From TrEMBL:
GO BP terms: response to stress
Regions annotated as coiled coil: none
Lineage of the species this protein comes from: Bacteria, Pseudomonadati, Pseudomonadota, Gammaproteobacteria, Alteromonadales
Name of the protein in question: Regulatory protein MarR
Stored PROSITE patterns: HTH_MARR_2
One GO molecular-function entry: DNA-binding transcription factor activity
Pfam family, one: Staph_reg_Sar_Rot
Keyword entries, A-Z: DNA-binding, Transcription, Transcription regulation
Organism domain of life: Bacteria
Species whose genome carries this gene: Colwellia psychrerythraea (Vibrio psychroerythus)
InterPro entries given in the database record: HTH_MarR-typ (IPR000835), MarR/SlyA-like (IPR039422), Transc_reg_Sar_Rot_HTH (IPR055166), WH-like_DNA-bd_sf (IPR036388), WH_DNA-bd_sf (IPR036390)
Domain HTH marR-type: 2-135
Length: 135
């Protein structure tokens, strides 16, 4: 029984990930890049350190440095060195980064439109169950 549930979860996660990726394609953004933009945008003063970003990524294997370099190349973030401690680097989101993040979130919502098939009470239960599984 548990094997079937695990396989079903993996299939659903893969399907949802594919839908989100397909929706984000026109923006040339990945789900991980969108997550980084969201982390920075929601941080105090719209800036975060690399370690703060790493701590909030769901995928511990994500290569945050690579993601940051891609986002810098797209001019969605900038790196700013701390004046007192040159080793400390703050990642700041640009205006274009905020615009891309907002557009990406809208497209991602469209990719997850299948969730709209659920009633409010079902969504609430699903959120609770997912949270319970992750804790």
């Amino acid at each position: 029984m548990h094997t079937n549930i695990a396989i079903s979860f993996l299939k659903t996660a893969q399907w949802l990930n594919s839908e989100v990726s397909r929706q984000l394609e026109p923006l040339d953004l990945t789900a991980q890049q969108l997550k980084v933009l969201s982390i920075v945008a929601l941080s105090e003063n719209k800036q975060a350190t690399v370690n703060e970003i790493k701590a909030q990524m769901f995928d511990p294997m994500s290569n945050v440095s690579r993601l940051l370099n891609k986002l810098m190349g797209k001019q969605l973030i900038i790196k700013v060195r701390n004046q007192e401690d040159q080793r400390l680097v703050h990642i700041k989101i640009t205006k274009l980064g905020i615009e891309s993040m907002c557009a990406g979130k809208k497209l991602m919502d469209q990719g997850l439109s299948a969730v709209g098939k659920l009633q409010d009470d079902e969504l609430e239960l699903l959120a609770k169950l997912i949270s319970k599984i992750r804790s």
